[in-house]
Specification:
Blueprint: H1 6-19, H2 25-37, H3 42-52, H4 56-65, E1 77-82, H5 85-89, H6 92-103, E2 109-110, E3 116-121, E4 133-135, E5 138-140, H7 148-162
Parallel strand pairs: 1-3
Antiparallel strand pairs: 1-4, 2-3, 4-5
The structure holds FE2/S2 (inorganic) cluster.
FE2/S2 (inorganic) cluster is lined by residues 82, 84-87, 123-127, 130, 132.
């Protein structure tokens, strides 16, 4: 199995150390690992299980239960497109198609250059703004109007190109 780099391992160690005496530490640790590494590597589950006296299987169960956790590395930029009923009816699928075409990221996957991840999500609870996309945590309501999401994505790509990352 591929080993994590030392920096990522020490990030995990710090997180575990920080929270091991708190109540309900597993979720808190997983949350921080997800936030800091962008995904939950297997090594993190092992370390968390060790520190909290739980089994790796139990920690894995928690990871699988919550949609916010992912075991695959994410792209540098994350696009969520809501495919709940209201958003689907108002053009959610079009947003998905546009995002895939522009970035090369398949639905629920990452583009080959590692720049973009695209996730189709369930209702985000903002149906009044349908169709909704979330780009790097920023909510874009009415996202098909004037190609709002598409324009935001193009800006990111331009910026990445300017910095020589694409
Ligand atoms: S269906 Fe998309 S926010 Fe509710």
């Amino acid at each position: 199995m591929e080993r994590l780099n030392p920096a990522a391992l020490s990030t995990i160690d710090n997180i575990v150390e920080r929270h091991k005496n708190e109540p309900g530490p597993v979720i808190v640790m997983l949350h921080d690992v997800q936030e800091e590494l962008g995904y939950i590597p297997f090594e993190a589950m092992e370390k968390i299980a060790d520190a909290t006296d739980t089994s790796v299987a139990e920690v894995y169960g928690v990871v699988m239960f919550y949609a916010q956790f992912t075991t695959e590395p994410k792209g540098k930029h994350v696009i969520n497109v809501c495919l709940g009923t209201a958003c689907y009816v108002k053009g959610g699928q079009k947003l998905i198609d546009q995002a895939t075409e522009l970035t090369g990221a398949p639905v629920n996957g990452t583009s080959p250059d590692g720049m973009f991840s695209l996730d189709a999500t369930r209702c985000l609870g903002a149906c009044g703004l349908a169709p909704v996309a979330v780009l790097d945590g920023n909510v874009i309501g009415d996202a098909t109007k004037d190609n709002k999401m598409l324009k935001a994505l193009k800006l990111i790509i331009e910026e990445e190109k300017k910095q020589g990352n694409m």
